[in-house]
Amino acid sequence: MAVHHRLQHRLRLDEPILEQVQRFTYEEMLAFLQYPNFIEEGQEVRLHRDPSEDKRRKNDFWLNMLFCWAYVVTLVGLTLHHTHRPELTLTCVNFLLGLLVWTLVEYYFHRFLLHKEQQPEKITPDKFAEIVDGHGIHHAFPQYRPVIVINPRKIIVYSVGIYLGLVWLVSTRCTLAVLSGIIAGLTCYDALHYWMHFGWPTSFIPLLNLRRSHLKHHYRDTTRGFGVSSTLWDHVFGTSHR
């Protein structure tokens, strides 16, 4: 906590954040990510010296939702086009399988790829800026809206890769059904994640528990609670909050 207070006096939001974190020690880096910095609604966080770099990283939540749900509807339509009536039940099972696969992919990415700061043996000071420029900025400034959803361009790239990988192994119908489930899961993840930080209160227990788990991940222990749209894999791998 003392390190965090020291950083509060050193950190300048009007100067590029990435240049500042490159001068951090590992202890300071962890404190920067584990103790969120609060900003005013609408306040900008400057990451790069070049403003165009910051602009490129920003994503509008509502435009993202419009694109993603339209994409999901398109994929489901293509799936149904390739599905004959006797195959409908199997197609639904494949879609649900895609949803389940997404929850595991989400957990894996969040735990092992987005939280590399928890692997000190692999982290050097020149990697600090790379971490903050990725998921780290969301942990350092969890109320900063423009960086909370996944860029649609990445979604297209990921889905093309998944399609090309699966279509060699199974039928087009099965591939489209699984892909539809994965992208639907990703879209629900983005919507839930945004709601957890900025949405209205709820008394619906499943949603309330998901939100509590995620906020504990931000404000109590960043080494637990990696599932956002589901806590299933946190329970399976022993990383649920105690």
Description:
By secondary structure, this protein is mainly α. The chain has one domain. Helix content is 65%, strand content 0%. The protein contains 11 helices and no strands. Helix 3 packs parallel to helix 7. The chain is elongated and about 65 Å long. The relative contact order is 0.14. The model has no long low-confidence stretch (mean pLDDT 90).
Secondary-structure element series: HHHHHHHHHHH
- Please summarize the sheet with the most strands: none
Please give the number of β-strands. 0
- CA radius of gyration: 20 Å
- Report the structural category: mainly alpha
Per DSSP, the total helix count is 11
**What percentage of residues falls in helices of 4 or more residues?**
55-70%
Portion of residues in beta strands equals under 5%
Mean pLDDT: 90
Low-confidence stretches: none
State the distance separating the first and last CA atoms: 21 Å
Envelope shape: elongated
User: How many independent structural domains?
Assistant: 1
Give a quick rundown of the structure.
This protein is mainly α and 242 residues long. It is built from 11 helices and no strands. It has one domain (2-38, 58-237).
Topology summary:
Elements: H1 2-10, H2 17-21, H3 26-34, H4 51-57, H5 61-81, H6 88-113, H7 125-140, H8 152-167, H9 172-198, H10 205-219, H11 232-237
Helix pairs in contact: 3-7, 5-9, 6-9, 8-9, 9-10
